[in-house]
Amino acid sequence: MERYVSSTFQRDDKNEEMKRNHEQMPRTGIETDAIHVGQEPERWPGHAVIPPISMATTFKQLEPGKPLLYEYSRCGNPTRQCLEECLASLEKAKYALTFSSGLGATTTLMFMLKSGDHIVSIDDVYGGTGRLFRRCMAQMGVESSFVDMSMDPSSIVNHLKPTTRLVWIETPTNPLLKLADIELISTLVHKYDPKIMVLVDNTFATSYYQRPLELGADLVLHSLTKYMNGHSDVVMGSLMMNSEELYKQLGFLQYAIGAVPSPFDCYLVNRGLKTLAVRMRQHMTSALLIAKYLEQHKYIERVIYPGLECHPQYELYKKQMSGFSGMISVYLKGDDVEKSKRFLKHLKLFTTAESLGGYESLIELPAIMTHASVPEEHRRQLGITDGLIRMSIGLEDVQDLLDDIEVSLQYAFLNTIEK
Ligand SMILES: Cc1ncc(COP(=O)(O)O)c(C=O)c1O
């Protein structure tokens, strides 16, 4: 155990050294950081321009008990470290840690809590996070309250208790794309008790469009599975933070629990990050066009997209985000599950599948897919109805996507056509 602890400190030392080097670099935007931070060719023998994948599970020690930089790959390895440095720079965080999945990151964080502790979570939280809180954490004696943080953020203080250890914000939420005021909530929570951790799940916005740590949050979580990797071929998660204490505690839990990603997957996510900025800009351009098209469509009841002026929190969107991704939620007229299914089945370019954030367009029915685990009554209260459809707008030609949507909407509403 001692050896693992000392390895954490070594990693800190190395990070400090890397940070000093980093500060000397001429730096401009996130595009530059995505390509250069943590990728310095001088780090590798032979000065490879692309970071090599280090598959070794263990590392030679010149003296017993005195590892050089790494000792065992669960505790750290060169490929993971270069990804973690790059991720931290994009989120403007001091530290980043990666995990085997987004939920792996969440589960690891849960080990900071103990029986009797209390979590306050946004109500429209990702279904898997809600399930972990409701089913698994409840079993461990950790209580959770689910609160609408979108319309009256200052009411958050009414839900805090002396046992509250974590406030979980997801903004924009999945699937209703509700926003929570990160700055206001962080200020109020920290005023109540500076020791309460405020976490923001930044998966839907990405580090490109929203930086919660700059707004006062303590922790940022990403399902890297989504936009950050962007190619739908890796499941991975991360936690980012500025506090050295949190980094040390979570770094310890990362290797003590062991929900770590493989070096090959780290390589893939690191590669995906290189195009994050261009992908996100295109996702947004196409999504905004499609959202505006759907907004005036006769078969659409309502379109939810934070970048539309009709979004109830458009002002907050402009304040805390610099744009949004390709996620659109729409209510079909009629709230009829058969119509929704017909629409999805007829689409040719959109694939019906869970997940999001890849270069390919995906579509799903939250009520019977991603959010089926949310208790029905809670789903109804939130507005996750049979007519709600979530789209992840990919990087295909936007006119092709619009044509696909139009033809399929016509089909869905043609009652005479066989189902
Ligand atoms: C907003 C959000 N957070 C967290 C997760 C969990 O991430 P993962 O699937 O990588 O475990 C998801 C997954 O869909 C998500 O949408």
UniProtKB/TrEMBL annotation:
One of its GO terms (molecular function) is pyridoxal phosphate binding. One of its GO terms (biological process) is transsulfuration. The modification N6-(pyridoxal phosphate)lysine is found at K226. Gene3D superfamilies: Aspartate Aminotransferase, domain 1, Type I PLP-dependent aspartate aminotransferase-like (Major domain). Its EC number is 4.4.1.1. Transmembrane segments: none annotated. Its cofactor is pyridoxal 5'-phosphate. Keywords: Amino-acid biosynthesis, Cysteine biosynthesis, Pyridoxal phosphate. Residues 1-28 are annotated as: Disordered. Residues 10-25 have a biased composition (Basic and acidic residues). Belongs to the trans-sulfuration enzymes family. This is cystathionine gamma-lyase. It comes from Rotaria socialis. The lineage of its organism: Eukaryota, Metazoa, Spiralia, Gnathifera, Rotifera.
